[in-house]
Amino acid sequence: MKFDILTIFPKVIEPYFTESLFARAQKKGILTVQAHDLRAFTKSRYKKVDDRPFGGGPGMVIQIEPIWRAIGSILKISKFPKTRIILFSTRGKKLDAKTAKRLSKYDRLILICGRYEGVDERVAAHIADEEISIGEYVLSGGELPALVLAEAVSRFIPGFLGTHESLEEIKGFYPVYTRPASLRLGGKTRPLNVPPALLSGNHRRIEVWRRTHGALHKK
User: Is residue 218 assigned to a domain?
Assistant: First the structure.
């Protein structure tokens, strides 16, 4: 999998992918991530990528041309059989596990991060394959959504998590505990104990407890 992220703030994006699971996955060749500075694809003398909206109104709008050139350059350098271009938008389809799993089947995802008052509508109409939103709220740009989508998708790529069973979509959702089994915190008069079922060593009893207190998926 290749993630190409188009943004005017690549330094906001890059550090996240140099740590933890993403660092390991890139080292193992499971995926690659590259942030592309949109300012490198403008012909403006001052590296300007935005302009005033037609019809008036506050703020500035990201122009279509730098995005078009950036994607053209990306596709020219290396081709992948299955590529999907995504624009982050508040009106886009809500990102969920089903969508993330679907996107994990592609070889490359090109993620367009908007800023300011948004992106020229012609990007959504003629360049992007789909629009995605990560929630019913507004952010200042598409950088955080790009990070969220990259991680949600990567979890479905074999080898990213280490074991397939680590997926919560597979093992279910339930409370988890670790050592120590009992402790006192601050002025607490009673110890904070781990549920006895989890300490029993009885796999059937543990499974029943997890089903009762969480949401285990059936195999």
Answer: no
Looking at the structure, tell me whether residues 86 and 116 fall in a common domain: yes
Cβ(61)–Cβ(78) below 8 Å: no
Domain that holds residue 198: 172-213
Number of structural domains, the chain?
Answer: 2
| 106 and 146, same domain (yes or no) | yes
How, if at all, do strands 108-112 and 83-94 pair?
parallel
The DSSP code sequence of 152-202 is HHHTTSTTSSSSGGG-HHHH-B-----S-SEE--TT-SS-EE--HHHHS--
What's the DSSP call for residue 39? G
Residues 22 and 84 in one domain: yes
User: Over the stretch 118-145, which tens digit does the pLDDT of each residue have?
Assistant: 999 999 999 999 999 999 999 999 999 9
Candidates 93, 79, 85; CA nearest to 128 is 85
Listed in sequence order, the residues at least 6 apart from 136 whose beta carbon sits closer than 8 Å to its beta carbon are 94
Q: Three-state SS for 37?
A: strand
